[in-house]
Structure formats: structure tokens, C-alpha cells
């Protein structure tokens, strides 16, 4: 067999097993963004005209964008969502780091059972949990406030972070800490000076996940919040721009687009850490 | 520099005992090697000295101080781990100075100590590197440097050489010995490699199944093992063990290995063995005391004939394997003297170095 035939064959193979699936995947992932963008900059007349191609924009307008930012409380919703997401991520990471470390490293009576129960908590679907949680929130007078979400989101974020971080802490050799403790560190010092710096990729992954989950959360936000000025982006956009059976497609799509941009930015910032956090392992 | 005293030390994990009553005194500046097969409790013992394992029962003293409930950081010890446990996010300098910085030593003092240790270990140029950029041997040195800068009461080594390749291991072994000669301090060293134990130790502690089998200096351990386990563990190739019968022959005693092999017990051992006459015992002889037929240099050397099984040339010697009454026996012969497999060969055995083992207690008589 000649060399050129061999190269041609691997190229074709790469095309079939790599480039074509990759292209399909990227297309499927990016098409919604494309659709959001073009819908948000079309005029209503063009949007509802079935004789023109829906994939092109002939007459771009920023009227829907103006409407979203000026006629709705969109910026307030973004601020609410950001605030809720940052606080609940912060709470969950704090609890997750301590809990994950304890369950990965300390052996105490019932530690295994405890970690299994945490996992089970994570498995209870929010669609069941929101009913009792509504009672809890109104008991504490938190209904229709951002604080209700800051307390509600950690109910699923904390177990999630703990489980992700248990796995990550276990990949960090125990000897590092033992050595630090012999060198003169207390357990807390060994954790702060040795384990946490090495766990940064894992902590970042947990944080990004927690942030995204809170950013996109819909059910609790829908149930707990009622005033427009308190709403988060997912609930605000769908609640205020779909009135009865009237869909304001332009501003709706503009809201979806601008609502997903911050998450995309967060991801792209940390993508490297994020990948190494998923694959784990501290290499000596 | 301090003495370490271990009294009736026990450790169990739930129902499973790991260490079952150890008594040991390690003198100031002494290099003691704990050696034994995996699972014998040597590492557990070391970790109890370090404070990384809870002590189930018993007492450990470092110097005058009972340290059972003292946290590891206050025990004034340093430990070198098998995987080195270098902090990956710190440079070599930061790794070595970590303990000193925690103790809030003045900066110039820290710098001085790190430079001194780096000089001893010849790692001066590596101080700004990170562990990832070091070779196995260099990491090993840094791990030792981190222990040396602390100037602790005692050094603990947990199988520090087993991650190195064979050549580097021999080199580092010599180096550890040199360092101990320069930095006099008490050392407790755990290994499963009996050669490491022999070469490094002032005294060897052989452990098996959670108990100490014998404590002795290397040569004494080799010449006068206390139990069958020690006899078989120390020395390579291992000592030969053959079932035998001890009988009286007129005034003396003889060992019968098989119908054709009847060996006289040296006269100076007769009183020691007299009580065991006519019993089934285990005969032990090291391969180097079982050679090709040689001119006798003492009265206790005797000859016998056996069929050669397998030959293993080692260069300096050839190992001759044979079978005596079902037991595999290894002899150490001069390369040019050996016969081919299947042929009869004459051997000389030096009965001065024989051992007799009581199979009931497994103790050497």
C-alpha cells in the first residue's frame, strides 16, 4: 500500500468519526443562538411573513432590543439573577468545600451513611420539593423576595457541590496533608495551605455549575416570586413577555439572548480550569 | 536527637489487629530499620510514631515525653514518604521552608537553613523549580531536604526508595547512609527490602504479622537468626530449609536429611541439641555454606552427593538447585565447578553454620 493512499484513508476516517459529528454538534449547539439573534432583530412584519426565508434578515431593527431594555425591567431582572446566583453559589461552595473535605478525609461514625444521604437529598426532584419549601418560605416571611431563592437554591446546590468535591478531594494524595501536619501545620492550616490551592480546579467547576444552575433555575423562581421587580431573567422574560396567548417574540428572543450571554462569558473565562477539574488528578 | 521508646504498642482497625504488642527502644542517633513483608505492621508502627494513626493501646515516648496524645506537628519529627509528598504548587525552596515558615522563624534563618540543606543534598540549583520539573531522584532529595531543614528529634522514612529504579535506589541508599553520618540524628526507616535493611541499619527490627520477630544488628541478625521467619527473610537467596531427623551416633549427634545424606553435628553444638535427639526437626543452611566440593578448612565441613536440578549462573557464582527428599535446595558454587543438570555432583557443607529449627515453635535452637 502506498503512503498517500494510507494518508487519504485516515483523512476520510477522521472526517467521518471526527469532523462531521463535531460539525453537527456545533451546529446544533449554536443554531438556537443564531435563531434568537435573527428573531430579535427582525421587524414583526418580516417575522410573520411566511413567504420570505426565515433564516435571513432583510430589514434589521433594534426596536425589540429597545423595548426589552426600556419597556420591561430586564436590567433589574439581570441584577436580581446575578445577585441570587452569586450569593447561592457562595453559600453552596462554602458548605460544599467544608462538607466535601470532611467526607473525603475525616473518618467519623456514620460518615459513609451521611454521604449517601446527601446524595439522596440531591435526587429529590425540585418539582416535589417546591410545595413544602413554599410553606417554609412563607413561614419565614420570605415569599416574593430574592432571599427566598438564596436559601432555596442551596438545597440542591450544596449536595451537588459536596458530591463533586468529595471526588476531587479524593484525588489529592493524603500524604501531602499528613506531611504538612508533621511539618507543623494544624489540620485547618493543612487544608487551607495545601489542599485548597490544589483543589482550585475542582472548586471552580463546582462554582461554575452552581452559578449556571442558579442562573437558569425556573421553578422555584416562578413559585416564590410574584412582583415584576423581584423576578429573575428566566421568570421575568417568560412572565412579562408572554401575555396570555400573545408572544412578543422579538423582545422574548432578545431577553433569551442577553440572558445567556453572562453564563457564556463565565464559562469561557474558566474553561481550562473547568476541564481539568472534571478530569481530576493532581500530578506530582 | 532523642531516644524513642515504644511500650506494649497495639493497633487494631475494628476487629483486625495490625500491631500486636511491640516493645522497642531506639537509641539517640541510632539508625533503626523496620523490615518485614507487606501487612506486617511496620508502616502502621511508623505512622503511630508520627502521630498519623491513633494508638489503640500502649505508649510511645520521644525523649522523656509521652506523645500518645500529642498532635503530629508538636512531636518534633520529620517524615519522608514513599511518594515524596512534595507540595506540587510550591517551589523546592517553598517546599523545604514550609515547616519553618509555619513556625515563624526569621527570614534569614530560614534562608540559611535551606541553603545548608540544599548544599548537603546537592540540590542548590533546583531551589526555584517545582516538583513537576524534577526527576525521581531529585524529588527524593528534596523530600529529605525538607526533613533536614527542620532539624528534628527524629527522622521517619516510609519506604523512601521503592519508587526509584534499581540503579538509583542503590545510589540513594548510599547517600542516605552518608547523610546520616553527616546529620547525626535518630532514624526510623521502614522498608520491605531486606538488602536495604542490612546495608543501612545500626539495628534491624524484623516484624511479621504485627509482632517483632527479632531485634539485632545486621550481621548478628544474619549469623544468628532467632526464628525460622527471620532466617528465611534475611539473606538472598534465602536460607534452605529441609525436614530432618536428629539421632545419636555413638557419642555424638547426626542429622539425617535422606537415606544417603547423614551429617555429623559439630561437637560444640551437641549440648545445645542433646534434648532434641530422635525428634523431627527442620534443618537450615544458607546457600553460601553449601558449595561445590572443596578442600576442607575446618573439621566440620562434610561432603555429600546429589543430583543437579537447575543451574542459575550469576556471574560471580552459579546457583545450583537440587531436590533432597522433596525439599528444594540451593547451593552456591564456583561457576567452573558445576556439573550439568541431571548429573551427580559432590557438595561440601559447612556444618559450623547449620541451624536447627523446632517446627512446633519455629524458633531456632
Q: What brief labels describe this structure?
A:
heterodimer, A: 284 residues, mainly alpha, MetI-like fold, 2 domains, two-stranded antiparallel sheet, 13 helices, globular, B: 365 residues, alpha+beta, Rossmann fold, OB fold (Dihydrolipoamide Acetyltransferase, E2P), six-stranded mixed β-sheet, six-stranded antiparallel β-sheet, 9 helices, 35% strand, elongated
Q: What is shown here, in short?
A:
The complex is a heterodimer of chains A (284) and B (365). With 284 residues, chain A is mainly alpha-helical.
Could you explain how this protein is built, in words?
The complex is a heterodimer of chains A (284) and B (365). Chain A is an all-alpha fold and 284 residues long. Chain A has 2 domains: 3-47; 69-279, MetI-like (MetI-like fold, Orthogonal Bundle). Helix content of chain A is 77%, strand content 1%. Chain A is built from 13 helices and 2 strands, in the order H-H-H-H-H-H-H-H-H-H-H-H-E-E-H. Chain A has helices spanning 3-40, 44-47, 63-71, 74-105, 111-123, 126-139, 146-152, 154-170, 174-183, 187-216, 219-224, 233-241, 249-279, and strands spanning 242-243, 246-247. In chain A, strands 1-2 form a two-stranded antiparallel sheet. In chain A, a hairpin with a 2-residue loop joins strand 1 (242-243) and strand 2 (246-247). In chain A, helix 4 runs parallel beside helix 7, helix 4 (74-105) runs antiparallel to helix 10 (187-216) and helix 8 (154-170) packs across helix 10. The two termini of chain A are 44 Å apart. Chain B has 365 residues and is an alpha+beta fold. Chain B folds into 2 domains: 4-233, Rossmann fold (3-Layer(aba) Sandwich), CATH 3.40.50; 240-364, OB fold (Dihydrolipoamide Acetyltransferase, E2P), CATH 2.40.50. Chain B is 24% helix and 35% strand. Chain B has 9 helices and 21 strands. Chain B has helices at residues 42-50, 92-102, 107-121, 136-149, 166-182, 194-200, 218-223, 228-233, 270-273; strands spanning 4-13, 16-26, 31-35, 57-62, 65-66, 77-80, 154-158, 186-191, 203-208, 211-216, 240-249, 252-256, 262-264, 280-285, 290-292, 301-313, 318-324, 327-333, 344-350, 355-358, 363-364. In chain B, the strands form 4 sheets. A 6-stranded mixed β-sheet of chain B has the order 6-7-8-3-9-10, sandwiched between helices. In chain B, strand 4 and strand 5 (65-66) form a beta hairpin. In chain B, helix 2 (92-102) packs across helix 3 (107-121), helix 2 (92-102) packs parallel to helix 4 (136-149) and helix 3 packs across helix 4 (136-149). The interface between A and B is medium-sized, with 20 and 28 residues.
Amino acid at each position: 500500500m502506498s503512503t498517500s493512499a494510507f494518508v487519504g484513508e485516515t483523512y476520510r476516517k477522521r472526517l467521518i468519526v471526527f469532523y462531521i459529528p463535531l460539525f453537527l454538534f456545533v451546529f446544533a449547539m449554536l443554531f438556537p443562538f443564531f435563531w434568537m439573534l435573527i428573531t430579535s432583530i427582525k421587524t414583526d412584519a418580516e417575522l410573520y411573513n411566511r413567504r420570505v426565508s426565515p433564516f435571513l434578515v432583510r430589514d434589521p431593527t433594534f426596536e425589540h432590543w429597545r423595548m426589552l431594555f426600556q419597556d420591561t425591567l430586564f436590567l433589574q431582572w439581570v441584577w436580581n439573577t446575578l445577585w441570587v446566583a452569586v450569593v447561592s453559589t457562595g453559600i453552596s461552595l462554602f458548605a460544599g468545600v467544608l462538607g466535601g473535605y470532611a467526607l473525603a478525609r475525616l473518618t467519623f461514625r456514620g460518615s459513609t451513611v451521611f454521604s449517601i444521604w446527601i446524595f439522596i437529598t440531591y435526587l429529590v426532584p425540585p418539582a416535589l420539593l417546591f410545595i413544602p419549601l413554599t410553606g417554609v418560605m412563607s413561614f419565614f416571611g420570605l415569599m416574593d423576595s430574592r432571599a427566598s431563592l438564596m436559601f432555596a437554591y442551596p438545597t440542591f446546590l450544596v449536595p451537588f457541590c459536596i458530591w463533586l468535591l468529595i471526588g476531587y478531594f479524593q484525588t489529592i494524595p493524603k500524604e501531602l496533608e499528613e506531611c504538612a501536619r508533621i511539618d507543623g501545620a494544624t489540620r485547618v492550616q493543612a487544608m487551607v495551605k495545601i489542599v485548597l490551592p490544589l483543589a482550585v480546579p475542582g472548586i471552580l467547576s463546582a462554582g461554575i455549575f452552581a452559578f449556571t444552575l442558579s442562573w437558569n433555575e425556573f421553578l422555584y423562581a416562578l413559585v416564590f416570586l410574584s412582583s415584576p421587580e423581584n423576578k429573575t431573567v428566566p421568570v421575568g422574560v417568560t412572565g412579562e413577555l408572554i401575555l396570555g396567548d400573545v408572544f412578543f417574540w422579538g423582545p422574548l428572543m432578545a431577553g433569551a439572548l442577553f440572558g445567556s450571554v453572562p453564563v457564556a462569558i463565565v464559562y469561557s473565562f474558566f474553561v481550562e480550569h473547568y476541564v481539568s477539574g472534571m478530569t481530576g488528578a493532581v500530578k506530582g | 536527637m532523642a531516644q524513642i521508646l515504644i511500650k506494649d504498642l497495639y493497633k487494631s482497625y475494628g476487629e483486625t489487629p495490625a500491631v500486636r504488642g511491640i516493645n522497642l527502644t531506639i537509641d539517640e542517633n541510632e539508625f533503626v530499620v523496620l523490615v518485614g513483608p507487606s501487612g506486617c505492621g511496620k508502616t502502621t508502627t511508623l505512622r503511630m510514631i508520627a502521630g498519623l494513626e491513633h494508638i489503640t493501646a500502649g505508649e510511645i515516648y520521644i525523649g522523656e515525653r509521652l506523645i500518645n496524645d500529642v498532635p503530629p506537628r508538636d512531636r518534633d519529627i520529620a517524615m519522608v514518604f514513599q511518594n515524596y509528598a512534595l507540595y506540587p504548587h510550591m517551589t523546592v525552596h517553598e517546599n523545604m521552608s514550609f515547616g519553618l515558615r509555619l513556625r515563624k522563624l526569621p527570614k534569614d534563618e530560614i534562608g540559611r537553613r535551606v541553603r545548608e540543606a540544599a548544599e548537603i543534598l546537592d540540590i542548590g540549583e533546583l531551589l526555584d523549580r517545582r516538583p513537576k520539573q524534577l526527576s525521581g531522584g531529585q524529588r527524593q532529595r528534596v523530600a529529605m531536604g525538607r526533613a533536614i531543614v527542620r532539624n528534628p528529634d527524629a527522622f521517619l522514612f516510609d519506604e523512601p526508595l521503592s519508587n526509584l529504579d534499581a540503579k538509583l535506589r542503590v545510589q540513594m541508599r548510599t547517600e542516605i547512609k552518608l547523610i546520616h553520618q553527616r546529620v547525626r540524628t535518630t532514624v526510623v526507616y521502614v522498608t520491605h527490602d531486606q538488602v536495604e535493611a542490612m546495608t543501612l541499619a545500626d539495628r534491624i527490627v524484623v516484624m511479621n504479622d504485627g509482632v517483632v520477630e527479632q531485634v539485632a544488628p545486621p550481621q548478628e541478625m544474619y549469623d544468628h537468626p532467632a526464628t525460622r521467619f527471620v532466617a528465611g527473610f534475611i539473606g538472598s537467596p534465602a536460607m534452605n530449609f529441609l525436614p530432618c531427623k536428629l539421632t545419636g551416633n555413638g557419642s555424638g549427634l547426626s542429622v539425617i536429611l535422606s537415606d544417603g545424606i547423614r551429617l555429623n553435628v559439630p561437637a560444640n553444638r551437641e549440648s545445645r541439641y542433646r534434648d532434641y535427639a530422635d525428634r523431627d526437626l527442620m534443618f537450615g543452611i544458607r546457600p553460601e555454606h553449601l558449595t561445590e566440593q572443596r578442600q576442607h578448612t575446618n573439621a566440620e565441613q562434610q561432603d555429600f552427593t546429589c543430583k543437579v536440578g537447575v543451574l542459575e549462573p550469576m556471574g560471580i557464582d552459579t546457583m545450583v538447585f537440587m531436590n533432597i527428599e522433596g525439599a528444594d535446595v540451593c547451593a552456591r558454587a564456583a561457576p567452573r565447578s558445576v556439573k550439568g543438570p541431571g548429573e551427580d555432583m559432590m557438595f561440601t557443607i559447612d556444618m559450623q553454620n547449620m541451624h536447627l529449627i523446632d517446627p512446633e515453635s519455629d524458633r531456632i535452637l
